[in-house]
Each structure stands twice: as structure tokens, then as C-alpha cells.
Amino acid sequence: MVDITEVVYDCKDDTILKKVNTNNTKKVVLTIDDGPSRVLPQLLDVLRDEEVPAVFFWQSKLLFHEREWQRVLDEGHLIGTHSTKHRNMVKLSFEEQFQDVYHSVEKIEEITGQKVRYFRPPYGQYNENTLEVARELQLVPVMWRISSMDWELKHDSQKIISNVCDHLEDGAIILLHELRQTLEVLPELIKAIKQKGYGFTLL
User: Fold this and answer.
1) pLDDT score recorded for residue 25
2) CB 53 within 8 A of CB 69
3) How far is residue 6's CA from residue 51's CA, in Å, rounded to a whole number?
4) CA 55 to chain centre
5) pLDDT-derived band at 5, boundaries 50, 70, 90
6) Average pLDDT in the 53-81 region?
7) What whole-number percentage of the chain has pLDDT above 70?
8) Among residues 150, 202, 178, 154, which one has the least CA distance to residue 36?
9) 153 in Cβ contact with 183 (< 8 Å)
10) Smallest Cα–Cα separation from 203: which of 114, 105, 118?
11) Is 2's pLDDT higher than 60?
């Protein structure tokens, strides 16, 4: 059984982005972590077919010129940093955090030619040093309002849909990952969100 307190994230820190202002237009933001992965092309196919934009938070160690980063940008999505290699920030010193995030941004920008504006800390773990690193690098730290818990649901992918759709609210940032089980339910998930009367936007 998934704990509701893990699905709906309630952070009181105003410096962290958890929701976006949609002017009450009933829209949500899909964010997809931990790529670029092998399922990226298929995820992009679904997003294209459903005409849905998304924000990808990538580990820069996985990004190479051969990955389909150009398609991500060409099809209207955003790329943010998810650090260099997904280390827990709170276990690192300020300097270690700074170097990790700085080099991840540097690599993503060097390959894509696009400025990185958004940063999601690995595991959703951060401290004051993390926030200071983000400030110094002019990055907006992004968490989420609704977690699909998809990484725990390899054998119960339908639960990904209910975790999201049972807790929808205007402006919510939704956490997904570049996983096979997420790909399998993504078309159904998007349709279910639309049936609830929600559209999609970016950060």
C-alpha cells in the first residue's frame, strides 16, 4: 500500500517550486526524471501523439551527443538538470554539491546549446547548501506536488494512474521517471488526466 503522504508532497519552503500558476486554467506539469534512457524515444512518441509537453530532468552522465536531446527540444519539451550522477545532495559538502551541479549544467548546455534553468535534487533530498548552490548557479529548484511512485510499481503500473489522477489539482507538478512501466501506462495516464478536465503546460 502506497502512503498518501508520499504521493502528495507538502513542502512549506517557498524557494522550492512545487506548483505553477496557471491562472485557474486547470493545467498540470509532467516532469520525467532520470534520463536520458533507452525508453526516451518511445516516451517522446507518446508525448507527440498526445500533444503533451514535458520537462525532463536528466543526469548529465547519461547524456551524450548521440542521445535524442535535439528531438526533445524540437518537440517543445524542456531539459533540466538532475545532477551529474544522482548522488544524494545532503550527504555532500557545499563544494561537492556545487561542483556536481555546476558540471551537470555545463555538460547539458555544451551538448544542447540551451541554457539550463531548472534543477531537481536527486531523491528529492536537499538542504540549505543545495538551495545556495541553486541560487549561485541561477537555477530554480523544482520538486513536485504529486508523485506517481512509479519506481515502486513495476508490477502494478495501473497504480501509477490512480496515484496521479486521485490527487490532481490545478498547477500541480507531477513526478514520473523514464521507466518501462511508466512508458506502458503513459498514454492511458495522459488520457485519464484529460478526462478529468486538465490540460498540460511547462514550468
Assistant:
1) 95
2) no
3) 29
4) 6
5) low
6) 96
7) 98
8) 178
9) no
10) 118
11) no
- With contact defined as beta carbons under 8 Å apart, do 20 and 29 qualify? yes
Identity at 60, one-letter amino acid code: S
pLDDT digits (tens, 9 = 90+) for 113-168: 999 999 999 999 999 999 999 999 999 999 999 999 999 999 998 999 999 999 99
CA distance 102 to 137: 7
Half-sphere exposure of 128 (CA within 13 A, CB side): 0
Contacts 24+ apart (CB under 8 A), 60-67: 60/84, 60/85, 60/103, 60/104, 60/105, 60/107, 60/108, 61/85, 62/35, 62/36, 62/37, 63/36, 63/107, 63/108, 63/111, 64/111, 65/111, 67/36, 67/40
Model pLDDT for residues 79-117, shown as the tens digit of each residue: 999 999 999 999 999 999 999 999 999 999 999 999 999
For 146, which DSSP code? E
Q: What is d(CA 164, CA 9) in angstroms, rounded to the nearest whole number?
A: 12
* pLDDT tens digits for range 28-47: 999 999 999 999 999 999 99
Q: Which residue has the cell 544522482?
A: 86
DSSP 58-91: E-GGG--TTSTHHHHHHTT-EEEE--SS---GGG
Signed CA dihedral, 64, 116, 112, 58: sign only: positive
**For residue 195, which of 2, 19, 26 has the smallest C-alpha distance?**
26
Q: How far apart are CA 57 and CA 79, in angstroms?
A: 6
